[in-house]
Amino acid sequence: VRDGGAAARELIARREAVFAEVQEYYFEEPPAIVRGWRELLVDADGRVYLDALNNVTSIGHAHPRLVEAVTEQWQLLNTNSRFNYPAVVEYAERLASLVPDPLDTVFLVNSGSEAVDLALRLARAATGRRDVLAVREAYHGWTDLSDAVSTSVADNPGALASRPDWVHTVDAPNPFRGRHRGAEASRYAGDAVAEIERLAAAGTPPGAFIAETYYGNAGGIALPDGYLAAMYEAVRRHGGVAVADEVQVGYGRLGEWFWGFEQQGVVPDVVAVAKAIGNGHPLGAVITTKEVAAAYRSQGYFFSSAGGSPVSSVVGSTVLDVIREEGLQENAREVGGYFRERLAELGERHPLVGAVHGSGFYLGLEFVRDRDRFEPATEETAAICERLLELGVIVQPTGDHQNVLKIKPPMCLGREGVDAFVAAVDRVLTTGW
Ligand code: PMP
Protein backbone atom coordinates (compact mmCIF):
# COMPACT_ATOMS: atom_id res chain seq x y z
CA VAL A 1 0.00 0.00 0.00
CA ARG A 2 1.31 3.38 -0.97
CA ASP A 3 2.41 5.67 1.79
CA GLY A 4 1.91 9.32 0.90
CA GLY A 5 5.32 9.88 2.51
CA ALA A 6 6.36 11.97 5.49
CA ALA A 7 6.94 15.07 3.35
CA ALA A 8 3.48 14.77 1.78
CA ARG A 9 1.80 14.33 5.18
CA GLU A 10 3.62 17.29 6.65
CA LEU A 11 2.56 19.42 3.70
CA ILE A 12 -1.08 18.40 4.14
CA ALA A 13 -0.97 19.26 7.84
CA ARG A 14 0.39 22.73 7.05
CA ARG A 15 -2.18 23.13 4.30
CA GLU A 16 -5.06 22.20 6.59
CA ALA A 17 -3.85 24.73 9.15
CA VAL A 18 -3.91 27.62 6.72
CA PHE A 19 -6.32 26.84 3.87
CA ALA A 20 -10.05 27.51 4.22
CA GLU A 21 -11.65 24.17 4.99
CA VAL A 22 -14.01 24.31 2.02
CA GLN A 23 -11.00 24.03 -0.29
CA GLU A 24 -10.79 20.28 -0.87
CA TYR A 25 -7.87 18.20 -2.06
CA TYR A 26 -7.68 15.07 -4.16
CA PHE A 27 -7.18 11.69 -2.45
CA GLU A 28 -7.06 10.65 1.20
CA GLU A 29 -3.25 10.64 1.30
CA PRO A 30 -2.19 12.82 -1.58
CA PRO A 31 1.43 12.67 -2.73
CA ALA A 32 3.38 15.95 -2.74
CA ILE A 33 3.54 16.83 -6.43
CA VAL A 34 6.67 18.77 -7.33
CA ARG A 35 6.84 18.75 -11.10
CA GLY A 36 5.06 17.90 -14.31
CA TRP A 37 6.20 16.92 -17.78
CA ARG A 38 3.83 16.31 -20.70
CA GLU A 39 1.10 13.98 -19.30
CA LEU A 40 3.19 12.99 -16.29
CA LEU A 41 3.38 14.26 -12.72
CA VAL A 42 6.27 13.56 -10.34
CA ASP A 43 6.09 13.52 -6.55
CA ALA A 44 8.67 14.52 -3.95
CA ASP A 45 9.94 10.92 -3.78
CA GLY A 46 10.52 10.85 -7.53
CA ARG A 47 7.48 8.64 -8.20
CA VAL A 48 5.88 9.23 -11.59
CA TYR A 49 2.10 9.34 -12.19
CA LEU A 50 0.04 9.36 -15.34
CA ASP A 51 -2.15 12.46 -15.18
CA ALA A 52 -5.55 11.61 -16.65
CA LEU A 53 -7.20 14.51 -14.84
CA ASN A 54 -5.70 17.73 -16.12
CA ASN A 55 -7.82 19.05 -18.96
CA VAL A 56 -6.62 22.51 -17.93
CA THR A 57 -3.12 21.49 -18.97
CA SER A 58 -4.18 21.14 -22.57
CA ILE A 59 -0.75 21.07 -24.26
CA GLY A 60 1.00 19.21 -21.43
CA HIS A 61 2.86 20.15 -18.28
CA ALA A 62 5.95 22.38 -18.51
CA HIS A 63 5.77 22.79 -22.29
CA PRO A 64 9.18 24.29 -23.20
CA ARG A 65 7.74 26.53 -25.89
CA LEU A 66 5.25 28.06 -23.48
CA VAL A 67 7.92 28.49 -20.80
CA GLU A 68 10.14 30.30 -23.29
CA ALA A 69 7.39 32.54 -24.68
CA VAL A 70 6.21 33.56 -21.21
CA THR A 71 9.75 34.23 -19.98
CA GLU A 72 10.47 36.42 -22.97
CA GLN A 73 7.22 38.39 -22.59
CA TRP A 74 7.76 38.93 -18.87
CA GLN A 75 11.18 40.36 -19.70
CA LEU A 76 9.68 42.72 -22.26
CA LEU A 77 6.39 43.96 -20.84
CA ASN A 78 3.41 43.01 -18.72
CA THR A 79 0.66 45.56 -18.23
CA ASN A 80 -3.08 45.97 -18.73
CA SER A 81 -5.20 46.01 -21.84
CA ARG A 82 -5.99 49.73 -21.70
CA PHE A 83 -2.54 50.09 -23.25
CA ASN A 84 -2.09 49.51 -26.94
CA TYR A 85 0.23 46.53 -27.58
CA PRO A 86 0.32 43.87 -30.28
CA ALA A 87 -0.04 40.70 -28.18
CA VAL A 88 -3.62 41.35 -27.09
CA VAL A 89 -4.79 42.33 -30.56
CA GLU A 90 -3.16 39.28 -32.12
CA TYR A 91 -4.67 36.92 -29.57
CA ALA A 92 -8.15 38.43 -29.81
CA GLU A 93 -7.98 38.16 -33.62
CA ARG A 94 -7.04 34.52 -33.33
CA LEU A 95 -9.84 33.72 -30.88
CA ALA A 96 -12.36 35.46 -33.12
CA SER A 97 -11.10 33.46 -36.11
CA LEU A 98 -11.85 30.20 -34.28
CA VAL A 99 -15.60 30.78 -34.07
CA PRO A 100 -18.23 30.96 -36.84
CA ASP A 101 -20.12 34.11 -37.89
CA PRO A 102 -21.64 36.17 -36.42
CA LEU A 103 -19.37 35.69 -33.37
CA ASP A 104 -16.61 38.26 -33.79
CA THR A 105 -16.04 40.14 -30.53
CA VAL A 106 -13.80 39.12 -27.66
CA PHE A 107 -13.55 39.94 -23.93
CA LEU A 108 -10.52 38.66 -22.02
CA VAL A 109 -10.75 37.68 -18.35
CA ASN A 110 -8.86 35.39 -15.97
CA SER A 111 -10.97 32.29 -15.31
CA GLY A 112 -13.96 30.22 -16.29
CA SER A 113 -16.09 31.63 -13.49
CA GLU A 114 -15.39 35.15 -14.70
CA ALA A 115 -16.13 34.17 -18.28
CA VAL A 116 -19.51 32.64 -17.34
CA ASP A 117 -20.32 35.57 -15.06
CA LEU A 118 -19.59 38.04 -17.84
CA ALA A 119 -21.51 35.92 -20.38
CA LEU A 120 -24.62 36.08 -18.17
CA ARG A 121 -24.16 39.82 -17.64
CA LEU A 122 -23.96 40.31 -21.40
CA ALA A 123 -27.18 38.32 -21.79
CA ARG A 124 -28.88 40.50 -19.20
CA ALA A 125 -27.70 43.66 -20.89
CA ALA A 126 -28.79 42.44 -24.33
CA THR A 127 -32.25 41.31 -23.24
CA GLY A 128 -33.03 43.44 -20.19
CA ARG A 129 -34.07 40.22 -18.44
CA ARG A 130 -32.88 38.54 -15.33
CA ASP A 131 -34.41 35.06 -15.65
CA VAL A 132 -31.99 32.35 -16.71
CA LEU A 133 -32.62 28.75 -17.64
CA ALA A 134 -29.90 26.26 -16.65
CA VAL A 135 -29.48 22.52 -16.86
CA ARG A 136 -29.33 20.37 -13.73
CA GLU A 137 -26.10 18.62 -12.72
CA ALA A 138 -24.09 21.58 -14.04
CA TYR A 139 -21.11 23.43 -12.63
CA HIS A 140 -20.39 26.88 -14.07
CA GLY A 141 -18.22 28.62 -11.46
CA TRP A 142 -18.02 30.20 -8.02
CA THR A 143 -18.82 33.92 -8.57
CA ASP A 144 -22.31 35.05 -7.61
CA LEU A 145 -23.77 34.71 -11.11
CA SER A 146 -21.89 31.60 -12.23
CA ASP A 147 -22.67 29.93 -8.91
CA ALA A 148 -26.36 30.85 -9.24
CA VAL A 149 -26.62 28.66 -12.35
CA SER A 150 -24.48 25.83 -10.89
CA THR A 151 -26.91 23.05 -10.08
CA SER A 152 -24.63 20.09 -9.41
CA VAL A 153 -25.39 18.47 -6.07
CA ALA A 154 -21.95 16.85 -6.09
CA ASP A 155 -20.42 20.33 -5.93
CA ASN A 156 -23.07 21.70 -3.56
CA PRO A 157 -25.54 19.29 -1.90
CA GLY A 158 -28.03 22.12 -1.32
CA ALA A 159 -27.73 23.46 -4.86
CA LEU A 160 -31.22 22.84 -6.16
CA ALA A 161 -32.98 24.16 -3.07
CA SER A 162 -30.86 27.30 -2.84
CA ARG A 163 -30.84 28.75 -6.36
CA PRO A 164 -32.18 32.33 -6.62
CA ASP A 165 -35.78 32.53 -7.87
CA TRP A 166 -34.69 33.90 -11.26
CA VAL A 167 -32.80 30.68 -11.98
CA HIS A 168 -34.94 27.96 -13.56
CA THR A 169 -33.70 24.47 -14.28
CA VAL A 170 -34.44 21.62 -16.64
CA ASP A 171 -33.45 17.94 -16.45
CA ALA A 172 -29.88 16.96 -17.22
CA PRO A 173 -30.42 15.48 -20.70
CA ASN A 174 -28.68 12.21 -19.81
CA PRO A 175 -29.60 9.28 -22.10
CA PHE A 176 -28.13 6.76 -19.61
CA ARG A 177 -30.02 7.66 -16.47
CA GLY A 178 -32.87 9.98 -15.56
CA ARG A 179 -36.35 10.46 -16.99
CA HIS A 180 -35.68 9.44 -20.62
CA ARG A 181 -33.23 6.73 -21.58
CA GLY A 182 -31.75 5.43 -24.81
CA ALA A 183 -33.94 6.09 -27.83
CA GLU A 184 -36.31 8.12 -25.63
CA ALA A 185 -33.58 10.70 -24.88
CA SER A 186 -34.85 13.00 -27.63
CA ARG A 187 -37.75 13.76 -25.27
CA TYR A 188 -35.51 15.84 -23.02
CA ALA A 189 -35.60 18.64 -25.59
CA GLY A 190 -39.40 18.57 -25.76
CA ASP A 191 -39.69 18.79 -21.98
CA ALA A 192 -37.14 21.60 -21.79
CA VAL A 193 -38.78 23.60 -24.60
CA ALA A 194 -42.11 23.18 -22.78
CA GLU A 195 -40.45 24.73 -19.72
CA ILE A 196 -39.38 27.74 -21.82
CA GLU A 197 -42.97 28.09 -23.08
CA ARG A 198 -44.26 27.83 -19.51
CA LEU A 199 -41.86 30.53 -18.32
CA ALA A 200 -42.83 32.77 -21.25
CA ALA A 201 -46.54 32.30 -20.50
CA ALA A 202 -45.87 33.18 -16.86
CA GLY A 203 -44.27 36.48 -17.96
CA THR A 204 -40.72 35.42 -17.10
CA PRO A 205 -39.17 34.18 -20.37
CA PRO A 206 -35.47 33.39 -19.85
CA GLY A 207 -33.07 36.10 -20.99
CA ALA A 208 -30.46 33.37 -21.30
CA PHE A 209 -30.21 29.63 -21.59
CA ILE A 210 -26.84 28.36 -20.38
CA ALA A 211 -25.48 24.86 -20.86
CA GLU A 212 -22.27 22.98 -21.44
CA THR A 213 -22.38 22.01 -25.10
CA TYR A 214 -21.24 18.46 -24.33
CA TYR A 215 -22.10 17.32 -20.84
CA GLY A 216 -18.70 17.51 -19.16
CA ASN A 217 -19.71 17.77 -15.54
CA ALA A 218 -22.13 14.85 -15.83
CA GLY A 219 -19.33 12.64 -17.16
CA GLY A 220 -18.51 13.56 -20.74
CA ILE A 221 -21.93 12.74 -22.14
CA ALA A 222 -22.98 13.90 -25.61
CA LEU A 223 -26.26 15.81 -25.49
CA PRO A 224 -29.07 14.09 -27.41
CA ASP A 225 -29.02 14.97 -31.12
CA GLY A 226 -30.90 18.17 -31.79
CA TYR A 227 -31.08 19.16 -28.11
CA LEU A 228 -29.26 22.48 -28.39
CA ALA A 229 -30.89 23.31 -31.73
CA ALA A 230 -34.34 22.98 -30.12
CA MET A 231 -33.33 24.91 -27.01
CA TYR A 232 -31.57 27.74 -28.84
CA GLU A 233 -34.54 28.14 -31.20
CA ALA A 234 -37.05 28.30 -28.34
CA VAL A 235 -35.04 30.67 -26.16
CA ARG A 236 -34.40 33.01 -29.12
CA ARG A 237 -38.04 32.90 -30.20
CA HIS A 238 -38.85 34.40 -26.82
CA GLY A 239 -36.14 37.05 -27.09
CA GLY A 240 -33.41 35.35 -25.06
CA VAL A 241 -29.82 34.49 -25.94
CA ALA A 242 -27.99 31.17 -26.07
CA VAL A 243 -24.91 30.95 -23.83
CA ALA A 244 -22.46 28.09 -24.39
CA ASP A 245 -20.13 27.04 -21.59
CA GLU A 246 -17.10 25.62 -23.41
CA VAL A 247 -14.82 25.96 -20.38
CA GLN A 248 -14.22 22.21 -20.06
CA VAL A 249 -15.15 20.64 -23.35
CA GLY A 250 -14.11 23.20 -25.96
CA TYR A 251 -10.74 23.87 -27.61
CA GLY A 252 -10.02 20.65 -29.47
CA ARG A 253 -10.30 18.14 -26.66
CA LEU A 254 -13.35 16.42 -28.16
CA GLY A 255 -11.14 15.47 -31.12
CA GLU A 256 -13.80 15.41 -33.79
CA TRP A 257 -14.86 18.98 -33.00
CA PHE A 258 -12.93 22.03 -31.82
CA TRP A 259 -16.02 23.31 -29.99
CA GLY A 260 -18.75 21.26 -28.34
CA PHE A 261 -21.42 23.36 -30.08
CA GLU A 262 -20.19 22.04 -33.45
CA GLN A 263 -21.17 18.54 -32.35
CA GLN A 264 -24.73 19.86 -31.92
CA GLY A 265 -24.67 21.81 -35.21
CA VAL A 266 -25.53 25.15 -33.56
CA VAL A 267 -23.96 28.58 -33.15
CA PRO A 268 -24.42 30.21 -29.72
CA ASP A 269 -24.81 33.95 -29.12
CA VAL A 270 -22.24 34.01 -26.33
CA VAL A 271 -19.38 31.55 -25.73
CA ALA A 272 -17.47 31.26 -22.43
CA VAL A 273 -13.98 29.70 -22.61
CA ALA A 274 -11.16 29.19 -20.09
CA LYS A 275 -9.05 26.37 -18.64
CA ALA A 276 -7.44 24.80 -21.74
CA ILE A 277 -6.86 28.18 -23.39
CA GLY A 278 -4.21 29.10 -20.79
CA ASN A 279 -2.74 25.63 -20.09
CA GLY A 280 -3.07 26.48 -16.39
CA HIS A 281 -2.24 30.19 -16.67
CA PRO A 282 -5.27 32.22 -15.46
CA LEU A 283 -7.00 33.04 -18.70
CA GLY A 284 -10.62 33.14 -19.77
CA ALA A 285 -12.54 34.66 -22.64
CA VAL A 286 -16.03 35.49 -23.77
CA ILE A 287 -16.70 35.54 -27.49
CA THR A 288 -19.93 37.11 -28.73
CA THR A 289 -21.45 39.32 -31.40
CA LYS A 290 -20.90 43.07 -31.81
CA GLU A 291 -24.57 43.58 -31.03
CA VAL A 292 -24.51 41.76 -27.68
CA ALA A 293 -21.21 43.40 -26.71
CA ALA A 294 -22.61 46.84 -27.57
CA ALA A 295 -25.58 46.33 -25.24
CA TYR A 296 -23.13 45.94 -22.37
CA ARG A 297 -21.85 49.48 -22.99
CA SER A 298 -25.07 50.78 -21.46
CA GLN A 299 -23.73 49.43 -18.16
CA GLY A 300 -20.37 51.21 -18.37
CA TYR A 301 -16.96 50.13 -19.57
CA PHE A 302 -15.39 46.72 -19.23
CA PHE A 303 -11.99 46.39 -17.66
CA SER A 304 -9.98 43.54 -16.13
CA SER A 305 -6.53 44.44 -14.79
CA ALA A 306 -4.85 41.22 -15.85
CA GLY A 307 -7.36 39.94 -18.42
CA GLY A 308 -5.58 40.07 -21.78
CA SER A 309 -2.30 41.27 -20.32
CA PRO A 310 0.67 40.86 -22.65
CA VAL A 311 1.79 37.75 -20.76
CA SER A 312 -1.72 36.23 -20.78
CA SER A 313 -2.15 37.02 -24.46
CA VAL A 314 1.20 35.42 -25.32
CA VAL A 315 0.17 32.37 -23.32
CA GLY A 316 -3.10 32.20 -25.28
CA SER A 317 -1.43 32.54 -28.68
CA THR A 318 1.34 30.05 -27.83
CA VAL A 319 -1.17 27.45 -26.64
CA LEU A 320 -2.99 27.82 -29.95
CA ASP A 321 0.29 27.52 -31.90
CA VAL A 322 1.13 24.31 -30.06
CA ILE A 323 -2.35 22.82 -30.49
CA ARG A 324 -2.12 23.46 -34.21
CA GLU A 325 1.53 22.65 -34.89
CA GLU A 326 1.63 19.50 -32.75
CA GLY A 327 -1.71 18.34 -34.14
CA LEU A 328 -3.20 17.98 -30.66
CA GLN A 329 -6.85 18.06 -31.73
CA GLU A 330 -6.04 15.36 -34.27
CA ASN A 331 -4.21 13.43 -31.54
CA ALA A 332 -7.29 13.73 -29.30
CA ARG A 333 -9.39 12.33 -32.13
CA GLU A 334 -7.09 9.41 -32.95
CA VAL A 335 -5.67 8.41 -29.58
CA GLY A 336 -8.97 9.31 -27.90
CA GLY A 337 -10.78 6.96 -30.30
CA TYR A 338 -8.34 4.20 -29.39
CA PHE A 339 -8.85 5.04 -25.69
CA ARG A 340 -12.61 4.68 -26.04
CA GLU A 341 -12.25 1.32 -27.76
CA ARG A 342 -9.94 0.03 -25.03
CA LEU A 343 -12.36 1.19 -22.32
CA ALA A 344 -15.24 -0.53 -24.13
CA GLU A 345 -13.18 -3.77 -24.10
CA LEU A 346 -12.87 -3.40 -20.33
CA GLY A 347 -16.66 -3.25 -20.22
CA GLU A 348 -16.87 -6.63 -21.93
CA ARG A 349 -14.93 -8.24 -19.09
CA HIS A 350 -15.95 -6.23 -16.03
CA PRO A 351 -19.66 -5.96 -15.11
CA LEU A 352 -18.96 -2.87 -12.98
CA VAL A 353 -18.48 -0.88 -16.21
CA GLY A 354 -21.94 0.44 -17.03
CA ALA A 355 -21.09 2.71 -19.95
CA VAL A 356 -18.26 4.48 -21.75
CA HIS A 357 -19.08 8.09 -22.52
CA GLY A 358 -17.42 10.87 -24.39
CA SER A 359 -15.30 11.77 -27.35
CA GLY A 360 -11.60 12.37 -27.96
CA PHE A 361 -9.84 13.14 -24.71
CA TYR A 362 -13.03 13.83 -22.79
CA LEU A 363 -14.14 10.38 -21.73
CA GLY A 364 -16.30 9.05 -18.92
CA LEU A 365 -16.08 5.52 -17.54
CA GLU A 366 -19.29 4.94 -15.62
CA PHE A 367 -19.38 2.35 -12.84
CA VAL A 368 -22.71 0.76 -11.87
CA ARG A 369 -23.70 -2.01 -9.45
CA ASP A 370 -25.96 -3.59 -12.01
CA ARG A 371 -26.53 -2.87 -15.64
CA ASP A 372 -30.30 -3.18 -15.58
CA ARG A 373 -31.11 -0.67 -12.92
CA PHE A 374 -27.91 1.29 -13.53
CA GLU A 375 -27.43 1.76 -9.77
CA PRO A 376 -24.41 4.07 -9.35
CA ALA A 377 -21.31 2.43 -7.82
CA THR A 378 -20.36 5.55 -5.89
CA GLU A 379 -18.26 4.08 -3.06
CA GLU A 380 -16.57 1.65 -5.44
CA THR A 381 -15.57 4.54 -7.74
CA ALA A 382 -13.93 6.45 -4.87
CA ALA A 383 -12.04 3.32 -3.77
CA ILE A 384 -10.97 2.59 -7.35
CA CYS A 385 -9.49 6.10 -7.64
CA GLU A 386 -7.50 5.61 -4.42
CA ARG A 387 -6.20 2.25 -5.68
CA LEU A 388 -5.34 3.74 -9.08
CA LEU A 389 -3.24 6.37 -7.33
CA GLU A 390 -1.25 3.54 -5.73
CA LEU A 391 -0.70 2.15 -9.21
CA GLY A 392 0.49 5.53 -10.49
CA VAL A 393 -2.64 6.79 -12.26
CA ILE A 394 -4.36 10.04 -11.31
CA VAL A 395 -8.07 10.27 -12.11
CA GLN A 396 -11.17 11.43 -10.21
CA PRO A 397 -14.93 10.79 -10.20
CA THR A 398 -17.54 13.23 -11.52
CA GLY A 399 -21.32 13.53 -11.83
CA ASP A 400 -24.08 13.88 -9.27
CA HIS A 401 -23.51 10.25 -8.23
CA GLN A 402 -19.71 10.51 -8.33
CA ASN A 403 -19.59 7.23 -10.21
CA VAL A 404 -18.02 8.30 -13.49
CA LEU A 405 -14.24 8.40 -13.93
CA LYS A 406 -13.70 11.68 -15.73
CA ILE A 407 -10.82 11.02 -18.12
CA LYS A 408 -9.40 14.21 -19.57
CA PRO A 409 -5.61 14.00 -19.89
CA PRO A 410 -3.29 16.58 -21.44
CA MET A 411 -3.86 16.36 -25.20
CA CYS A 412 -0.31 15.13 -25.90
CA LEU A 413 -1.15 11.69 -24.46
CA GLY A 414 -0.02 8.80 -26.70
CA ARG A 415 -1.19 5.22 -27.10
CA GLU A 416 1.32 3.92 -24.54
CA GLY A 417 -0.28 6.21 -21.95
CA VAL A 418 -3.71 4.83 -22.85
CA ASP A 419 -2.38 1.28 -22.49
CA ALA A 420 -0.90 2.10 -19.07
CA PHE A 421 -4.20 3.62 -17.92
CA VAL A 422 -6.29 0.70 -19.16
CA ALA A 423 -3.88 -1.88 -17.68
CA ALA A 424 -4.13 -0.18 -14.27
CA VAL A 425 -7.96 -0.04 -14.35
CA ASP A 426 -8.08 -3.65 -15.56
CA ARG A 427 -5.86 -4.70 -12.67
CA VAL A 428 -7.97 -2.89 -10.08
CA LEU A 429 -11.23 -4.29 -11.47
CA THR A 430 -9.68 -7.79 -11.54
CA THR A 431 -7.91 -7.86 -8.18
CA GLY A 432 -10.28 -5.61 -6.25
CA TRP A 433 -10.11 -2.22 -4.66
N1 PMP B 1 -17.61 26.07 -16.32
C1 PMP B 1 -17.31 24.77 -16.29
C2 PMP B 1 -18.03 23.83 -17.19
C3 PMP B 1 -16.32 24.30 -15.42
O1 PMP B 1 -16.03 23.01 -15.40
C4 PMP B 1 -15.63 25.22 -14.59
C5 PMP B 1 -14.54 24.76 -13.63
N2 PMP B 1 -14.62 23.47 -13.15
C6 PMP B 1 -15.99 26.57 -14.64
C7 PMP B 1 -16.98 26.97 -15.52
C8 PMP B 1 -15.30 27.59 -13.77
O2 PMP B 1 -13.99 27.77 -14.19
P1 PMP B 1 -12.85 28.33 -13.20
O3 PMP B 1 -12.55 27.25 -12.20
O4 PMP B 1 -11.69 28.62 -14.12
O5 PMP B 1 -13.36 29.56 -12.56
Automatic annotation (TrEMBL):
One of its GO terms (molecular function) is transaminase activity. The keyword Transferase applies. Keywords: Aminotransferase, Pyridoxal phosphate, Transferase. The keyword Transferase applies. Belongs to the class-III pyridoxal-phosphate-dependent aminotransferase family. This is Aminotransferase. It comes from Agromyces soli. The lineage of its organism: Bacteria, Bacillati, Actinomycetota, Actinomycetes, Micrococcales.
